[in-house]
Amino acid sequence: MSVSSDKSTAAEKQPRVSVAARSRQATRARLVESGRLLFAKNGLHGVTTHDIAHQAEVASGTFYLHFKNKVEVFQEIADSCVSELIECIDNACSPHRETKDIPALIHAQAEALVGFAEDHRDLIRILFSADADAAAVGSGILRALAETIAEDRRELVSVGLAQNGLDPAVLGQAVVGMWAQVLSWWSEDPTRVSREALIETLTQIQLTGTSRVVA
Amino acid sequence: MSVSSDKSTAAEKQPRVSVAARSRQATRARLVESGRLLFAKNGLHGVTTHDIAHQAEVASGTFYLHFKNKVEVFQEIADSCVSELIECIDNACSPHRETKDIPALIHAQAEALVGFAEDHRDLIRILFSADADAAAVGSGILRALAETIAEDRRELVSVGLAQNGLDPAVLGQAVVGMWAQVLSWWSEDPTRVSREALIETLTQIQLTGTSRVVA
Amino acid sequence: MSVSSDKSTAAEKQPRVSVAARSRQATRARLVESGRLLFAKNGLHGVTTHDIAHQAEVASGTFYLHFKNKVEVFQEIADSCVSELIECIDNACSPHRETKDIPALIHAQAEALVGFAEDHRDLIRILFSADADAAAVGSGILRALAETIAEDRRELVSVGLAQNGLDPAVLGQAVVGMWAQVLSWWSEDPTRVSREALIETLTQIQLTGTSRVVA
Amino acid sequence: MSVSSDKSTAAEKQPRVSVAARSRQATRARLVESGRLLFAKNGLHGVTTHDIAHQAEVASGTFYLHFKNKVEVFQEIADSCVSELIECIDNACSPHRETKDIPALIHAQAEALVGFAEDHRDLIRILFSADADAAAVGSGILRALAETIAEDRRELVSVGLAQNGLDPAVLGQAVVGMWAQVLSWWSEDPTRVSREALIETLTQIQLTGTSRVVA
DNA sequence: GATGAATGAGTATTCATTCAT
DNA sequence: AATGAATGAATACTCATTCAT
After folding, report:
1. Which residues contact D61 (CB under 8 A, 6 or more apart)?
2. Contacts of A49 (CB under 8 A, 6+ apart)
3. Eight-state DSSP code of residue A138
4. Measured between beta carbons, which residues in chain C are less than 8 angstroms from residue D164?
5. By CB atoms within 10 Å of each CB, which of A14, A201, C208, D150 scores lowest?
6. Are residues D8 and D90 in the same domain?
7. Which of residues 20-49 of B touch strand F (CB under 7 A)?
8. Which of residues 44-73 of C touch strand F (CB under 7 A)?
9. Residue D100 shares a structural domain with residue D21
């Protein structure tokens, strides 16, 4: 309250605006949340702006006060999904970056990934839907992720921790593609394979051309 | 004479049927070809039945003389794509199956795959579009491919040519995902990486848990 | 062959034409029969010319060699239905016309009607479908029937066998409407009411203003 | 003040809702009215949803904001027609129900019916179109009416006011069929027969087996 | 005379988006 | 800022009818 009173003292209009802005943000947040839910279930095409507004319990016109169009929400949602994922992976990897323990790093990465998939089965659907239109939109997302991985790889190579036989860009794409396919396959029915076997297999595949050199 | 007249009646009818049937098949083929072209460019949703008919230079109603609906053509096209791909891969692999030379086999597989992508850039777009709706349709396609790979793997393991640490089902999904992503990325712009580097990298990644055991 | 040679002797072209004409008429008859079947089941709108041709086992274009359009077959079929019905009724009534036994005549009429409905449940559907379009077509049919009844009535009145209180034209319409409704209702499920009760009731209603005068 | 502000908030919202709702209802009413007009003229099949929207001077999509499909409007219109008719008849009959004056009741009924036909020539076309598809929809309507009449009849019989020789269900169907045919015939051209002759004839026919027994 | 592939206008229905309140 | 009725272009699919063979 001290903060808010500070603000109100500053300008008579500030708080009102603040209230309105807060409400606006709440509405926007509800729309985003509804979008997540629905896109995860039905994909970009399977959802109408009316659906989203209805789910968010606002009028259909309200949607357009917050987003230019349907693609924009999808974009935003997809972007935030990637951010979450990247952050999640980074958190898992950072301890191992310093120790340069590549196998441990890759393993932690796979573990984080699988954990993320478990916690956010819905986001997996959104992240890895390589929908032709989502491609125009969000596939850039996978590309970004791939680039991140490629970059990491280049660094490893430059410091001599990985062999040079693999093209980093290709590896990045390959890893992302692998993740996308495996995780969406697994998310559909997690009983298909045990969590541990999944992590182990992903780790093994990705270790190729990495640990071997180190070993 | 009765016999000959029978024959002449048959002969009278045969060609008619044949001509009509031929024309029908030609039209159908043009529709399929147009579908290929357009689906590759714009995806399942980005194409209308009118587009396909127009591209095939037939009236829009004609489409429905040959297909029940848009999904049916897509299905058919996608199915034939997979068949082509599988055949292409099989051809490349078969010589090495007998010699049990796994590294050579994997390499040949990667080479065939890249060759296929070069020759059929359009099909790649169709094959590997994990479109949410195409999923309901053709994604079963990727699943089928993945299962084929998993099956191959199980065989290798059973004859002791591959280690058991990797789950075959997961490996199958992973390989397919990798192919899908890498090939569609590369197809967009083949100058991104040399043909050879691409093959080499795909080979290396997939050799994991295969050649190592052998070595 | 002896017969055909006879004909061929008469005129070289005659038999051929005759054969062709016979075949043509057979095709036409099959189309009409198919139309009857299908119109009875699905109504004018529920049937396509393709359906009719298919049912008749001829090509769809053949339909147009025999009829100008769909309405024309319907017309023809409906007309022949009315003719059959009228003939059927006339046969039943004629014995009583001479004896001037009106109640017996009306009863015989009702009996004939119900018998007709039993034998031709399908035709009932066609005859009495007051479809808006069938109206433009076949409703004239009911009108014709109504006019016949009105005419009969006028005659009865003129010879003093019926009272004058009822307008013949209205009576004609009323009787036809009654028949149409009752028979199509009954045709749907003849267990609704016994044959005898049905005849009795129809007779009673129609006797109004007829037998009463006589009685 | 908090209370008044609550109210003002409510007041702020109430009118908006009201205005929108009023406008919505007005549009819906226009659509229904247009449907009445057009269905009366052209029947269920002769009218498209575009026609209705156009006639109502709204965009074609607007139709679907108010009705699920064409059949739904037709249903609604037809239902309301029957309600109006039944109410009209009931009003005319009720005074005579108590006096048990059957001839007067039947006469009043016929009078009401003819009056209704005069006032609502369009509704007659809708009510009594035994269209094959309208049958799937609204013909149930005629059936309902017939059942009402049958029920009335059973009551009359049970209190001894009508003879038992006629099957009530058949009578119901017969009366409805008679009305349908006569009224639509007369509506087309009311100069065909005088209003009085029409009423008299309908009355006479229906009196059969009713008043006679009493008399 | 028969065939059957092709036509293309017609129709129901959906949905992203706008705008007056 | 929010509402929600209205818009109208877009699209899948049907079917009476034609015509080259």
Report:
1. D53
2. A60, A63, A64, A69, A70
3. I
4. none
5. A14
6. no
7. 47-49
8. 47-50, 60-61, 63-64, 69-70
9. no
Q: Are residues D46 and D74 in the same domain?
A: no
Euclidean distance between CA atoms B86 and B94, whole angstroms: 12
Q: Rounded to an integer, what distance in angstroms lies between the CA atom of residue D12 and that of residue D5?
A: 10
Which two three-digit tokens encode residue D25? 């209802």
Distance CA B27, CA B31 (A): 6
Kindly report the length of chain D: 215
Nearest residue to nucleotide E4, by CA–C1' distance, is: C59
Q: Contact partners of C by the rule of 3+ C-beta pairs under 8 A?
A: D
Are A152 and A173 within one domain?
yes
Q: How confident is residue C93, by pLDDT bands cut at 50, 70 and 90?
A: confident
Report the distance from CA of residue B149 to the C1' of nucleotide E12 in Å, as an integer: 46
Residue B192 to chain A, least CA–CA distance (Å): 9
Kindly report the pTM of this predicted structure. 0.83
Per residue of chain B (215 residues), what is the pLDDT tens digit?
444 444 444 445 555 557 888 899 999 999 999 999 999 888 888 999 999 999 999 999 999 999 999 999 998 998 888 888 888 988 998 888 788 788 888 899 999 999 999 988 888 878 776 565 665 555 567 777 888 888 888 887 887 777 667 889 999 999 988 998 899 889 888 999 999 999 999 988 887 655 443 33
Nearest residue by alpha-carbon distance to C1' of E15: A48
With a CB cutoff of 8 Å and minimum separation 6, the contacts of B144 are: B82
**DSSP letters along A72-113, please?**
HHHHHHHHHHHHHHHHHHHHHHHHHHHHT-HHHHHHHHHHHH
What is the spatial distance, in angstroms and rounded to an integer, between the CA atom of A212 and the C1' atom of E7?
66
D180 vs C177, C185, C197: nearest CB: C177
The 3-state secondary structure of C121-144, one letter per residue:
HHHHHHHCCCCHHHHHHHHHHHHH
Domain range spanning residue C99?
70-214
Q: Please identify among residues 62-121 of chain A the ones whose CB lies closer than 8 Å to any CB of chain B.
A: none
| Helix, strand, coil percentages for chain D (3-state, nearest 5) | 85, 0, 15
> How far is B101 from D129, CA to CA, in rounded Å?
80
In total, chain A counts a number of residues equal to 215
Per the structure block, which two tokens stand in for A60? 């259909």
Do D103 and D57 share a structural domain? no
Indicate if A194 and A105 belong to the same structural domain. yes
Contacts of B54 (CB under 8 A, 6+ apart): B60
Choose among C165, C179, C182: nearest Cβ to D204: C165
**Measured between alpha carbons, how far is B4 from B184 in angstroms, rounded to an integer?**
60
How far apart, in whole angstroms, are the C-alpha atoms of residue D47 and residue C129? 19
Distance CA C135, CA D134 (A): 13
The verdict on C79 and C167 lying in the same domain is: yes
Name residues whose C-beta falls within 8 Å of residue A138's C-beta, 6 or more positions apart in sequence: A74, A75, A78, A79, A126, A127, A129, A131
Do D41 and D145 lie in a common domain?
Answer: no
Nucleotide nearest B70, from its CA to each C1':
F12
Identify which of D39, D23, D24 has the alpha carbon closest to the alpha carbon of residue D79. D39
Q: Count the domains in chain A.
A: 2
Q: Which amino acid, residue A58?
A: V
Å from the A74 CA to the F11 C1'? 24
**Backbone φ/ψ region at A148: left (φ over 0), alpha (ψ -120 to 50), beta:** alpha
Nearest CA-CA partner of D34 in D69, D81, D77, D65? D77
B117: chain A residues, CB-CB within 8 Å? none
Per-residue flag: B70 CB under 7 A of strand F: yes
Q: Which helix H or strand E contains C43, and what residues bound it? A: none
